[in-house]
């Protein structure tokens, strides 16, 4: 897959990633399961998410340029994340993709691609034990 056919380009590049993130985080902060995991000032988190998603989907390596290697599992280890958290996160992302009018086939691809990392971050069982 060349740069022109990357998921990032197929999604619409920087403008779409930004719209997706701006549609996503209002859902996260209203979600009773997810909201406690995020700091009150969501702006810096949104910026990092834009950088990460751009890079993750084949766009410019914005996250690595600003913060080094993503090491996303390590960055999420301080938070107790269950399978329910992962599912809620993906549901919020799917709703955000629908809100911005992402075509269904592309939305399905995006959510499927994000499912791997979302469930990779799970580090706690539902009863609170470490996985």
Structure in words:
The chain is an all-alpha fold and 131 residues long. The protein has 7 helices and no strands. The chain has helices spanning 7-11, 13-30, 43-56, 62-67, 72-76, 83-99, 104-120. The longest helix is centred in the N-terminal third of the chain and has 18 residues, at 13-30. It is globular. The chain starts with 6 loop residues before the first helix and ends in an 11-residue tail after the last helix. GO terms for molecular function: heme binding; metal ion binding; oxygen binding; oxygen carrier activity. Belongs to the truncated hemoglobin family. Group II subfamily.
**DSSP helix fraction:** 55-70%
Q: Mean pLDDT score, rounded?
A: 89
Unreliable sequence segments = none
Relative strand content:
under 5%
Topology, element by element:
Blueprint: H1 7-11, H2 13-30, H3 43-56, H4 62-67, H5 72-76, H6 83-99, H7 104-120
Keywords: Heme, Iron, Metal-binding, Transport
Protein name: Globin
Organism: Paenibacillus herberti
